[in-house]
Each structure stands twice: as structure tokens, then as C-alpha cells.
Design goal:
The complex is a heterodimer. By secondary structure, chain A is mainly α. Chain A is 84% helix and 0% strand. Chain A contains three helices and no strands. Classes of the chains: A mainly alpha, B mainly alpha. Chains A and B meet through helix 1, helix 2 and helix 3 of A and helix 1, helix 2, helix 3 and helix 4 of B.
Chain lengths: 81, 109
């Protein structure tokens, strides 16, 4: 079970990572980074590293997404360059 | 507790198809609300995947990860809803961004 699901989730992780650094919309980049964190959390949990999955779920998927949204809220949504 | 291998493969295939469809909507979603809902659905599918991995592997400690993931995905959804509503609370220096300017600060929302 673990092998096929690992490969599929790793493919999605790569796609969301590349999308997060290439998209022009900063809020879309924050959402793609949240998706990256969710998928990495699932990947850590499937591979058996429970404490790493805990940290990824709490810090990566929860707090950093809220901080990015707050930063976009205070500044601008489009990149200038 | 173990399940039949056929049902393990069936569950894995269904969760993979759910990931694929949700991820397509997450990438091509034209508006922001589509992407936020797709992110929420992705977290729910992740929780389902962790629960399926718990049943298949028999490690009950993985369920704690599912609980924390549900809690934190709700926090992220609240953050995005906070942005989309354009309402920034009572602090005077917050709400100068685009979300506040689009809806007007304190315009009865």
C-alpha cells in the first residue's frame, strides 16, 4: 500500500512546490504552500515519523499559512517583479 | 486489526483519485475561493488518508496526527476567511491592505 501512495503524494508535493514559487498571485502561493505542508504531513505520517508529522501539521499547515495570509493582508497581493 | 488486501488497495486507489481531482482544482482554480475550498478538501482527504494508513498498518498513534491536522486546517481556513471578509478587527493599523480596501473598512460587514 505504502509504495504507490508514496509515489503519488511525492509527485503532488513536487507540483505544488514548483507552483508555489512560480505563481504570480501571492495568496495563491500561500495556498499552494499550505497544500505542500498538508501533503508533506501525510507523507511523514505514512512513512512512520509521527512526531515530524505533528510538527509539520502544527507549524507548516497551521501557523505559517495564517502568518502568510496576515502578511499579504497588510501589504499587497501581486508581486512587483 | 487487519483488513482484506483488496479493500486496502481499493481504499488507496480511491484516496489517490480524490487527491488527483482535488489537486487539479487547486492548481487551475480561477478564483481564490475555489482554491481555499480545494485546500480544505485536500486537508480532509489527507485526514482520510491518515485514517486509512492507521487501519492498514495497525499503528494507532497515527490517529493523533489526524486530530492535529484537522485542528490546524481549521485554523488556516479561518485565516483565509478573515482575509476574504476584509474585516480586520479593531486595531487601527491593520486593514491597510487590498482586502480592506476592496470591501471598505467597517462598512457594515
Amino acid at each position: 500500500m505504502s509504495g504507490q501512495l508514496d509515489m503519488i503524494i511525492l509527485l503532488f508535493v513536487i507540483i505544488s512546490g514548483i507552483g508555489a514559487i512560480t505563481v504570480r498571485d501571492l495568496l495563491g502561493a500561500a495556498i499552494l504552500f499550505g497544500a505542500y505542508s498538508f501533503l508533506m504531513c501525510l507523507l511523514w505520517a505514512i512513512m512512520g515519523a509521527v512526531d515530524v508529522a505533528f510538527t509539520e501539521a502544527s507549524v507548516g499547515a497551521g501557523v505559517s499559512t495564517v502568518l502568510f495570509v496576515a502578511a499579504v493582508f497588510r501589504t499587497t497581493r501581486r508581486t512587483k517583479d | 486489526m487487519t483488513i482484506h488486501p483488496f479493500f486496502a488497495y481499493l481504499t488507496t486507489a480511491l484516496i489517490s483519485v480524490s487527491f488527483l481531482l482535488t489537486f487539479i482544482r487547486l492548481v487551475i482554480g480561477p478564483s481564490l475561493a475555489d482554491r481555499v475550498v480545494a485546500l480544505e478538501l485536500l486537508s480532509i482527504v489527507s485526514i482520510g488518508g491518515i485514517a486509512a494508513a492507521t487501519v492498514i498498518t495497525g499503528k494507532a498513534v497515527l490517529l493523533d496526527v489526524a486530530v492535529v491536522l484537522a485542528l490546524m486546517s481549521f485554523l488556516g481556513t479561518v485565516g483565509f476567511a478573515y482575509y476574504l471578509s476584509g474585516k480586520a478587527g479593531d486595531s487601527p493599523d491593520i486593514g491597510k491592505g487590498e482586502g480592506a480596501q476592496r470591501f471598505g473598512k467597517g462598512a457594515g460587514r
